[in-house]
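Q: I'm writing a short methods note and want an example of a predicted protein-small molecule complex. Could you take the sequence and the SMILES for zinc ion and return the bound structure as tokens? Please keep the output block clean; save any remarks for afterwards.
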Amino acid sequence: MGRLDFTIDAEAEGSRARAARFRTRHNEVLTPTFMPVGTHAAVRSQRREDLLESGAQVLLANTYHLLLRPGVEIFEKFGGIHGFMNWPRSVLTDSGGFQIYSLPGSRTLCEEYAEFTSYVDNTRIRLSPERSIATQKAIGSDIMMVLDQCVPSTAPHSVARGAMELTHRWARRSLAARGDSAQALFGIVQGASYADLRTESAHAITDMPFDGYAIGGLAVGESSSQREDCTATVTELLPRERPRYLMGVGTTRDLLEAVHRGVDMFDCILPTSLARQGVAFTSLGRRDLRRAAYRGREGPLDPACGCYTCKTYSIAYLFHLQRVHESVGWQLLGLHNTHFYLQLMRSIRAHILAGTWLTFYHAQRGVLDARDSYGEPATHVTRAALRKLRLKRGRYEVIVREKIGYIRDTTSGEVMHAGSDPSEEARALYVDQSRLIERVQDGTGEPLVVWDVGMGAATNAMAAILAVEAAAGPGAGAAAPGPITRSLTLVSFEQDLDALELALDHLRLFKHLRHAAPRSLLTQQRWTNGGSMIDWRLLPGDFAVQKFEAPAPDIIFFDPFSYKADGALWTLAAFRELARLCAHRPVELFTYSGSTAIRSAMLAAGFYVAKGRGTGLKAETTIALSAAAAAPPCRHELLGAEWLAKWRRSDARAPFGSAADDTAAREAVSAHPQFRAGEETVG
Ligand SMILES: [Zn+2]
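A: Understood, no commentary inside the block.
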């Protein structure tokens, strides 16, 4: 029986698909089911009424993030997450295990616990299996998860084995910590993409009396066929009479494939995260609402959908909201996507019950992955007009100088890497100045984390990847790891992916993109090379928000549009927040700007500021250093008394983004410790 009273309603013929039900302390859950992700006790920009209306039965919340904010005492005060959110149906909490994987730069791991540096206040947070369960008890979720260790799908066998065995020991401790609580607890099968380890893990975990079993460690860099094989291997070994949960997966097509292989429960951030990029899942396939083909188009987003968005608005209006970056546009698309996922699961269940699953499965496989099947073919368009059309996408266009492509922002007129060959500039300013290659050869073992802020057409990111691959020598990767002793974790932040998509349509002009990585990044938000030497991830959306989701950086390539076009990222407040994240560790930030107002903002925020090398049109660029990075012997030439004297005469003394009457900000610049030695000599 277990705590969930799980019963099977029907099993499909010729497939492992099944329809079942279980009862939590809050409601009956019909499976297969999709659980919208509410990391911080809220599904991104969705109201609870809309989630109830769309038929969400279980929400997923994140133990680690909720432990940091709002903290256990708030849940205790409000009677758990149900009282706090006013959510009447079930909640499943993950354990914090995924953060052990996704925040490698800010945690250490030992047999007893993982220890993190809090992104909220820099304190140390210990997460042991016991603390994870105690936190989940306080949150009051209906289903708790054991603390586990997940590794990249490309991890070597020995590393994957170590993580799997730790996961088993932690599973036992979690079960003991749960005790006689009425909350259900699921075990997690690990083992990366190794069939032998997955089999061993399934046996070990199912030997323990959990209320359900999850497959963890997928959707972390493996191909979809690897994922499907692994799912099939594991589900075959799981007991028939317990729910099965595939964690963090995936697209609608992935869900269909996993149901076919016997999975009952899913969660994924894609419905809401892709909504922010203008992507909708529909009964006719995926639609990218930023495509010009949708301008002025009548009719709903999905004629087969009964959600509020589809009942109320035309596709032309939704296209317009994307175009003007109106946040209600993301909300409406997120609402539709969530509804579509839940509706798909209901259809799947109905077909399993009706005995028509296999027909439905085969018909949907092609449809769910189709791209923009509504896009009208371009007829009656001249070749010249078509060429011109292809050189534009969203707010960007391609301009060509001496057979090299540049991306221009049509709203501000700014050109990315305008001064010289963009790839050359990326190498000189970011890769060479940061001594990237030297640093991945320094043998410290920990991954080197590079933030790429303002990915644009991936010029800087690809310069880094190509440099590391070149340094690894011929046959880079699995065959010949070369002298690289430290893996590179590259995190790109970008709000608008049109620049990269546009450049990918013109590989002739953007040679640095002739590589498997950029397309993989766009479709899967991730690319890892064969030797697991490089792990490139995309965090789409606002850097201001997304930086908290990334592992702590060692190096930052700071290359957004200028403060004249894209001011928010360059303000004193933004640098202050960044400085707090970089406190207590050596971090070097490289940027093309040499502006006095920007350097003042960095200084007032607490960074040390050094001269960067000149490039193209600029005589000097800038390097910002955390205190630990600026400590002697500092490799960079810090701004000194001469700069300070010039600053005092300048009319751009106010740090960028500081208020006119903020004299404290100006004093913070003149009193900055980096000028102390200089002051004495100036006298
Ligand atoms: Zn809809």
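A: Remarks, as requested: Residues 327-354 form the longest helix (28 residues). Residues 373-381, 476-481, 678-683 have pLDDT under 50 and may be disordered.
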